[in-house]
Request: fold
Amino acid sequence: MFFRIQHRLSYTYDRPVFLEPMTVRLTPRQDGTQRILEHHLRLVDPPAGLTRVLEPDGTDAMVAWFQQERDHLTIEADMLVETLRSNPFDWIVTHREAQHLPVTYPEAEVRSLAGCLQDQTDPAVRAWAQAIAERVDGSATAFLSALADDIHHGFHHVGRMEGEPTSAAETLATLTGACRDTAMLFIAACRSQGLAARFVSGYSMHHPPEVSEHELHAWAEVYLPGGGWRAFDPSLGLAVADGHVVLAAAPDHHLAAPVSGRYRGTGVGSNLTYLIQLKAASSREELEDNAQPMVPS
Reply:
């Protein structure tokens, strides 16, 4: 599948502020599941400096720093990405202790996965996850599909453009959440069963009914020996194949945010507007024939 994605973020401030160094995660991940064919990232009114960095979890990011005060900042990304995984189940579990819940990993992998195994799960979430595990007779692979399916069919999915994810306990108690909320619940349930899980941000060609236009999307990845990192989208109730484009994945959702940064200005308010234009097609020719310029800001 081929994706043309254009993403603009515009920050405005009540009066000029000093921007602290900013991390921009708008470069798609490049691995065996997707590859970048084109990528252009631009900060309108260039910063004093801009450098490309590789973050702890493998995210390809840019760090910008500034010298002059400013009352606005616009970031534009234009990317062409090919996704490569047509079958999300083309794997086997190669470590016996990872086939059944609670999962245990080889010692070397435990050290590498430590951040994705931190289990601080609320008792109610733990009990809910345990009930699903018992329903699938402790099968780790069946648990993942059942968990995604239960969240998709059993919860009220909402669009919520701003704010931190709600806690897993709150999402479970209300049976309501945006994609980032259900992703966090999925991750907590997995970790309670010994499964290494992390938060993912990116784009999806699948348009949830609660969303009226394209937005940044969130889902989860789970690590299984022999399968590596495998993605599940609980808000859509599916194992992820070639319909999603990953920007960043990390055990802490803050490290998967498209932009991280702060500004200095006492009593100064800020506002963020954004635009995402996404087109997907089965061939590059079809995609480019229907290419649309980004709407002017």
